[in-house]
Amino acid sequence: MNSGKPPHAALGLMIQQALALINQGRLAEAEPLCRAVLKSQPRDFNAAQLLGHIALRRNDYAAAEQWLNRAVAINPGNAAVQSNRAVALLALGRAADALASSERAIALNPAFAEAHSNRGRALCALGEPAEGLACYERALALAPGLQEAHRGRIGALQALERHEAALVAADVALRTVPDSAELWSMRGAVLAKLHRAVEALAAFDRALSLRPDFADAWNNRGTALRDLRQPEVALQAVARALELRPQFAEALCNLANLRLDAGQFAAAIDACERALAIRSGMVDALSIRGAALRFAHRYTEAAADYRRLLALAPGFEYAAGHLFWLQAALCDWAERAVRGAGILAAVERGERAASPHTFLAVVDAPAAQLQCARTYVANFPVLAPLWSGARRAHERMRIAYLSADFHDHPVAHLMAGVWERHDRRRFETIGVSLRREVAGDAMHGRVRRAFEQFHDVSEVSDRDVAELLRRLEVDVAVDLNTHTHGGRLGILAYRPAPIQVNFLGFAGSSGAACVDYVLADAVAVPVGHERFFSERIVRLPHCFLPNDDGQPIGPPPRRRDLGLPDAGFVFCAFNNPYKLNPTLFDIWMGLLRETPGSVLWLRGGEPTLIANLEREARSRGVDPARLVFAPRVASMDAHLARYCAADLFLDTLPYGAHATARDALWAGLPVLTCAGDAFASRVAASLLGALGMPELVTSSLADYAARALDYAREPARLLPLRQALVDRSATSPAFQTDLYRRHLEAAFTLMCERHQRGAPPQSFDVPPLA
């Protein structure tokens, strides 16, 4: 009796035909043959595994898993099926299951190279790159030409930050398959990590010459062009990647970074959201969107992104610090103690938990701040110096100032008068702007005119900027950013100048071997604190903080026009809100409770910030109406004028007032500070010491609170201090721009004289001039 089923021999022939078609890439013709076999023989192992193979070739990983599971159920002792099943599980994001499947394959066939490679992939996906690397090494020992093992080995070495070894691995792989577009693209990615962007670009171009439709290589090309500061060409490359693969989440992140660089925050956020729609837990997209939201001053949303990011990837570089900063900027202190302690512990372990600038607000611990900076710069490349070591003898010393802040920014306001007064008979000054010009910014125009040469290098690579400084034969390169926003310490990593200086923008050590000196003073960085700096310390007399004594102060407004009461003591705390903390706020609220009719005048911000501070006041028994929030004003002279309405400025700790303290004192408002241990906490103390006002400097928060209360109870005691500030505005060394300029020039001269003698950098004090 005929059952209607093909005979066994016919089924075997159908499997052979299907296999031949698969080998020819004719998957659509092979699939119905396999399905027909299974319809006749539901437990046919070969048909099930071939359908799994077809699904893998089509990137249909869910279907691949189903077919391979069926094949495993029929024959659990087949190593190849177990290994292929691991490939499908990896693509589905189930690394733990993939690891188990690959280990079963290895148990069945210990010499199965592909299974060892898949085990390596699973381990890397589970955050174990060292174990993964060992698996790839085993796979290559068994099959030296196995390309997926070569690629995995390169990736594992990169995850371990062994980028030089990864480059060697890429070169070994390319010797086996020199025309692999994938390997050339991976080699380029390694070169990019090594900050060799020009070579990286060449590798990506080689990959594209082999495979013009290779979306990954186009995207990587965009990354290299971004590193080379060529944003328009980079955008074209990323756009091509997205044209080839519209659902390319990594390319959307690259696009977001380029928009972020250009200050196009809404476009950056949109690109991240498109990436997250494709891959909801994509940590890079969350990180970039968090940064874009932060720069758009949408702090609450940014904090939510970083919180989610840390839940997905607790060790994501610098994310803990970013979340700490955002919560601090909102005065959201519920988690501050726990998060701060965690960041400190991570920094002390050498982890990249916070950027050096953010860390200044975490703890008053100069040793930990140095460790943070050293960790931050540890992945800077070790480069051959562009400066050859020759000692130059120029008729005029050439000083280059590098800054992203040549605009309406505290650094420019502090230094403009100094730059305008440099002695051009002895010094040639060069401005190197790391940030593109802002249209209509009057301060930018003033700064630009102050320099003899001015170079906008916002779209010039670090190496090319360093080459420019070398060609100009700069004697002293002064980095005014170091670790603050927009800084490009990578330029100095090329050692373009014989003397390189950390100054003004960042109140701490760079942690970098390429920086020779840091400018400070004896109060900001006391004798004995040399161990907290990688640089040698040059102490200026009086105060390291400059002042523009030509800065006008507008007419004083009435209190009522500022939202202040006509009578009553006004405590002013205009520091950036991220410098505030609950310990200080306890003290400030105690002052309000002890001083009837007094108010605390603070910088305004987004509604969440104001609501949080009002809630904190209420919880301490203070009517929130006694907090007055100052809006941003249009001009510097109007900002300075309103200080006249306050009675006492309250400084913060551990990150104190710098330019803000200078502003208040210049406007005649006494500043009460508590000097801590670190540079960032001692700047106001330095200013007050130079002004001869030690009574406004305390050394403990208990003394700080008591002194503030004394002044609030006896406001008349502040009158002679206010008069002294008015009198000393024209006579104190702290406020005399030209005297400061001469001391600064003396510091540069002594550095150069030491260099000309062939002596290494050494700490020294600049003698005071009359």
Describe the structure.
It is a single chain. The chain has 770 residues and is α/β, with parallel strands linked by helices. Among the domains are: 8-210, Serine Threonine Protein Phosphatase 5, Tetratricopeptide repeat; 397-540, Rossmann fold; 559-735, Glycogen Phosphorylase B (Rossmann fold). It has 34 helices and 14 strands. Strands 3-2-1-4-5-6-7-14 form an 8-stranded parallel β-sheet, with helices on one face. Helix 12 packs antiparallel against helix 13 (215-227). The longest helix is centred in the last third of the chain and has 20 residues, at 737-756. The relative contact order is 0.05. The mean pLDDT is 93.
- Report how far the terminal alpha carbons are from each other: 121 Å
Level-1 CATH class name of the domain at 8-210: Mainly Alpha
Number of helices: 34
What fraction of the residues are assigned to beta strands by DSSP? 5-15%
- Helix content bin: 40-55%
Strand order of the largest sheet: 3-2-1-4-5-6-7-14
* Rg value: 32 Å
Shape: elongated
